[in-house]
Amino acid sequence: MAVSDVVISFIVLVAIYGILSYGLTLKYGHTGLLDFGHVGFFLVGAYTSVLFVLPPDDPGDFTAYVVGLGDIPIVGTWVVGIAVATLLSGIIGGLVALPTIRLREDYLAITVLGVSVIFQRFIQAESWFANGPDALRGYSPPLKNSFPLLLEGQVSVPFLGVSLPATPILFGVITAVVWGVSLSVLAVERGSGSPLPASALYLVGSFGLSTLSRPDGPLANQTQVAAAGGVVAAILMAVLLAVADLILLVGVLVSAFTWLVLTAVLARQFGRLTRREWLSGIALGTGFLVALLPIPFADAVAAKVAGGLVLLGIVVAGFYRAVQSLDWFAAAKVQIVGAAALWFVAIWYFIIPIVGPLGSGQLGPALKALLQNLVWILAFGGDVGVDYIVAVVGNLTVQVDYQRFLLAGFVLFMIGAYYILELTARSPFGRVLRAVRNDEDVVRSLGKDPFVYKIQSMVIGSALAGFAGALWAMYTQGLTFVTFAPRVTFIALLIVFIGGPSNNKGTILGAAVFWAFQQATTQIASFFPPALRVNVVAFRLVVMGILFLIVLYYLPDGLLGEANYSTPGRAGETREQQRESGVAARADGGDNE
């Protein structure tokens, strides 16, 4: 498996758990409601959506469930299933909140935890409802049968009853999302001091549409420019695929644009580091790489564990000593850790996959591995696909697999939910929620009922959990009750605390940090004997608990701290525009309505 495939799976999981954690960010971060039963609404969303797409129950297939609506036109679709799952989760969240919301914080947490356990045990015990303790399977994600995308594939258009070429249409959808998201990121970064020509890249990437962005123009803001640019890119790539066998070319073009955007973002984030800060980050990242060397190369398990822990302890001790003794290091410790992470990931993504082939004197396989990770939007290898012969590299079989389609859809959902949550947080409703969190008596003195706002927060947060549950069902293609254990709630809480309890952007960062840890420990476990791998993977729960305590003690406000939602923000503003509008709003009175 190429490293790019691992990264795509990682981003998909970040999107699902990011949306799940959005609900807790709203409940706890913005409203102050500690909900230990958040996973219960995750469960409701997952099972509800699946019951909408399953066919009617067949008594002879050893799978039992209460109802299957998959054969009903329109109703038995993922769109309807996800919508109903989201709505039902919100309604149940409101119903659960009605008798419990007046409880004190700790009693509320325990009560809703009990409700979530009841939901889980109901699924386990009542075999007639959703196959009991056994997995609920027999459904497929949307458009799964159209993948991998091949030149002769067809896709049926819902409600129209016609079939169209699958590759241009579905790859166009993927391109529209990837290109549009990249433009959105670039819109914020341009003009923010990046040493790279971010503004020129934005102009080219938007196909000149950015020149039309003005309040009285056809494209009122940068979000509309990004959407329009993504649509234009999708049309161009679809045309290339429709008229010629150019899957590899369009994959290179789309991937290259994303790499350019990522380079512009990283250049801005790390461009202000001094030489010694960069060298410190590289040294720290290299130290972590060296600390991992005993795991793949040592033969004895004791040597793997002891060697890795000793070297890791030396690296951590050195970092702590530098923070305590060097003022400049302490002031830039977050940036140095970021540079170390960037260096570590770059070596893992680009260098390590080609070390083996180059060590054997095989240039072709090394270039092939590098190409697979650069052209990440395409899957390489497999029994089916489009074959190419590339000089030096050799034979290539490329395809667009379903995982890339899920990536585009889930990232779009995560960004859409983030956008809605940002608007909510900056609205008068969001300011009242934070006032409820800080002091309910003040809210009452202003003539607003905290009880009503708490119920609304529970409804919206639970609906987000249900939406994430539906996406989880789509991703896993099978549900079991053990997946929805209470630990999922605490994972979501950890994600919220890592980024910042009341920081929507921090929720995404927290999900990325958590799943990076999960992926890393999974890969580390692969170097241990099979009999010990389960123990190594299970041990990360202990590490996760320790990490939770460290975050709560040393970083109570998370990595990004509490966001400033006191001023209304406009979508698509650059960082300078956001800063200027914030200063102007504070000069005018800030929160005054």
From TrEMBL:
<feature type="transmembrane region" description="Helical">
    <location>
        <begin position="169"/>
        <end position="188"/>
    </location>
</feature>
<feature type="transmembrane region" description="Helical">
    <location>
        <begin position="74"/>
        <end position="98"/>
    </location>
</feature>
<keyword id="KW-1003">Cell membrane</keyword>
<dbReference type="GO" id="GO:0015658">
    <property type="term" value="F:branched-chain amino acid transmembrane transporter activity"/>
</dbReference>
<dbReference type="Pfam" id="PF02653">
    <property type="entry name" value="BPD_transp_2"/>
</dbReference>
<feature type="transmembrane region" description="Helical">
    <location>
        <begin position="36"/>
        <end position="54"/>
    </location>
</feature>
<dbReference type="InterPro" id="IPR001851">
    <property type="entry name" value="ABC_transp_permease"/>
</dbReference>
<feature type="transmembrane region" description="Helical">
    <location>
        <begin position="278"/>
        <end position="295"/>
    </location>
</feature>
<dbReference type="GO" id="GO:0005886">
    <property type="term" value="C:plasma membrane"/>
</dbReference>
<protein>
    <submittedName>
        <fullName>Branched-chain amino acid ABC transporter permease</fullName>
    </submittedName>
</protein>
<feature type="transmembrane region" description="Helical">
    <location>
        <begin position="6"/>
        <end position="24"/>
    </location>
</feature>
<feature type="transmembrane region" description="Helical">
    <location>
        <begin position="479"/>
        <end position="500"/>
    </location>
</feature>
<keyword id="KW-1133">Transmembrane helix</keyword>
<feature type="transmembrane region" description="Helical">
    <location>
        <begin position="451"/>
        <end position="472"/>
    </location>
</feature>
<keyword id="KW-0812">Transmembrane</keyword>
<feature type="transmembrane region" description="Helical">
    <location>
        <begin position="334"/>
        <end position="355"/>
    </location>
</feature>
<keyword id="KW-0472">Membrane</keyword>
<feature type="transmembrane region" description="Helical">
    <location>
        <begin position="301"/>
        <end position="322"/>
    </location>
</feature>
<feature type="transmembrane region" description="Helical">
    <location>
        <begin position="195"/>
        <end position="213"/>
    </location>
</feature>
<dbReference type="InterPro" id="IPR043428">
    <property type="entry name" value="LivM-like"/>
</dbReference>
<feature type="transmembrane region" description="Helical">
    <location>
        <begin position="405"/>
        <end position="421"/>
    </location>
</feature>
<feature type="region of interest" description="Disordered">
    <location>
        <begin position="568"/>
        <end position="593"/>
    </location>
</feature>
<feature type="transmembrane region" description="Helical">
    <location>
        <begin position="537"/>
        <end position="555"/>
    </location>
</feature>
<feature type="transmembrane region" description="Helical">
    <location>
        <begin position="233"/>
        <end position="266"/>
    </location>
</feature>
<feature type="transmembrane region" description="Helical">
    <location>
        <begin position="375"/>
        <end position="398"/>
    </location>
</feature>
